[in-house]
Design brief:
Distance between the termini: 40 Å
Helix content: under 10%
Order of helices and strands: EEEEEEEEEEE
Number of strands: 11
Strand content: over 45%
Structural class: mainly beta
Oligomer: single chain
Radius of gyration: 13 Å
């Protein structure tokens, strides 16, 4: 069992930056692929970024490449989403998710993930 808690969301102007953190409770954190998804009102939940168990593979959606980055600290049981050059269309609830799979790849389908946080709101004003 893993519990995930996101933090770091808020209101920011377009072009600004935010750093989201996700703290995981429980053991064997480094067995989990970790990812960030987001969901805007009226839209489906979509993959944003993810990192494999060792931190050696990072996957980013095309929408955020060049602007966002994902990393993890297994010693702290935390995963991060650094968001730069934010745009109004990045406005959404951002969720941290864990996939109990010690793989090199990062999955992008929400149903592949076993545990979810409650989400944190990110609002980008124009």
């Amino acid at each position: 069992q893993v519990q995930l808690e996101e933090s770091g969301g808020g209101l920011v102007q377009a072009g600004g930056s935010l750093r989201l953190s996700c703290a995981a409770s429980g053991r064997i954190f480094d067995y989990y692929t970790m990812a960030w998804f987001r969901q805007a009102p009226g839209k489906e939940r979509e993959f944003v970024a993810g990192v494999n168990w060792s931190g050696t593979r990072v996957k980013l959606s095309d929408d955020v490449k060049g602007r966002f980055n994902c990393s993890r600290d297994n010693a702290k049981n935390e995963v991060y989403l650094q968001m730069n050059s934010l745009r109004p269309e990045d406005t959404a609830v951002y969720y941290c998710a864990a996939d109990f799979a010690r793989l090199l790849i990062v999955k992008i389908i929400p149903s592949e993930y076993d545990y979810w946080g409650q989400g944190t709101q990110v609002t980008v004003s124009s």
